[in-house]
Design a protein that fits this description.
disordered N terminus, 10 strands, single chain, 314 residues, 3-stranded antiparallel beta sheet, 12 helices, 31% helix, alpha+beta
């Protein structure tokens, strides 16, 4: 059973301006063009609150009906609460949110539009995951090669730009994130490749002290179920009955995991910005800032909680 004890959500503050023209019978109060400003989110409840405030303004003298009844007339002449709520969701909120569009997830790494790099990254098999800084690399002897911050500079700039101001696509077409029935995803890392950030035990000089180093341990990895993983064709399980603090041959070693969840309502901010959360958790906070990379063998590094390792977070 996955126990997500800590969840960090990157969400954008949304102050909506909801405008609609009332083309109904003259008996409607507040008839004609109407603009409601400062609606806190887009929902039936938020709209009713703003409408009621306007309805109760003495300038309109709306005394022959109630705010909610009058609002229903403008919401497709709804006859029930369910119809009014559906109208707000389907005819106002969803089209408004969809107008904003989503930034493709591939724009973060800028390694092509076929999602091959992203697929391999989430499985733990790109240069970002596997390389470590060295003085013996392609830049020449004694020159720094494979520096994480330099190699992932696009992650830093994306976080400062679209990652914090736009809706980012959630790559649900990748097998790692298909059919997330639990409305949750997580990443687990087993390697630290960056020194000097107070996370993990990678240290300088890199060639001596940052090879196969460990992330900060916050997880007891119980077992890996290969039949639930999109990476494995086997049906077996790998069991880790003891935590790494026991220094046992049965222990899994230090593992760091972080998960996040979203609401069933597709218009809820946790749903609309789950792509932002995925970017923040997987690429920015843990890889770019902390240097956490690579996956538990036999499991994807990041995916729906149904696919990743069976864990317990401390």
């Amino acid at each position: 059973m996955v126990q997500i004890l800590r969840m960090k959500t990157l969400a954008l503050t949304f102050a909506a301006t909801l405008a609609f023209a009332a083309k109904h019978a003259t008996a409607d109060c507040l008839d004609g063009g109407l603009v409601l400003e400062g609606v806190q989110g887009c929902s039936y409840e938020a709209l009713l609150t703003a409408y009621t405030r306007e309805f109760n303004d003495p300038v309109y003298s709306c005394s022959d009906t109630t705010a909610e009844a009058d609002l229903w007339r403008k919401l497709g002449n709804a006859q029930t609460l369910a119809q009014a709520q559906a109208y707000v969701t389907n005819s106002i909120c969803t089209p408004m949110y969809n107008e904003r569009g989503f930034v493709p997830f591939t724009e973060i790494a800028a390694r092509g539009t076929d999602y091959a790099f992203e697929k391999n990254y989430f499985n733990g098999y790109t240069t970002w995951n596997e390389q470590v800084e060295t003085l013996y690399g392609i830049n020449g002897l004694g020159q720094v090669s494979q520096n994480l911050k330099a190699d992932s500079i696009g992650v830093t700039s994306f976080f400062a730009g679209d990652g914090s101001s736009q809706q980012v696509e959630f790559p649900s077409h990748l097998s790692n994130f298909q059919s997330c029935a639990s409305n949750s995803a997580m990443c687990c890392w087993v390697t630290d490749r960056q020194a000097g950030d107070n996370n993990g035990n990678c240290a300088t000089p890199y060639d001596l002290n940052c090879v196969d180093k460990n992330p900060g341990d916050n997880t007891d990895l119980c077992y890996v179920d290969h039949k639930s993983s999109n990476m494995s064709k086997g049906n077996g399980e790998e069991l880790f009955p003891f935590d790494d603090n026991n220094n046992s041959d049965d222990a899994e070693g230090p593992v760091h995991c972080h998960g996040f969840a979203w609401a069933n309502d597709p218009n809820d901010f946790t749903s609309r910005y789950k792509g932002n959360n995925l970017f923040y958790v997987s690429m920015y906070d843990h890889m770019n800032q902390r240097g956490y990379v690579r996956a538990v063998p036999g499991a994807p590094m990041c995916g729906c909680t149904e696919q990743v390792s069976i864990i317990q977070l401390f």
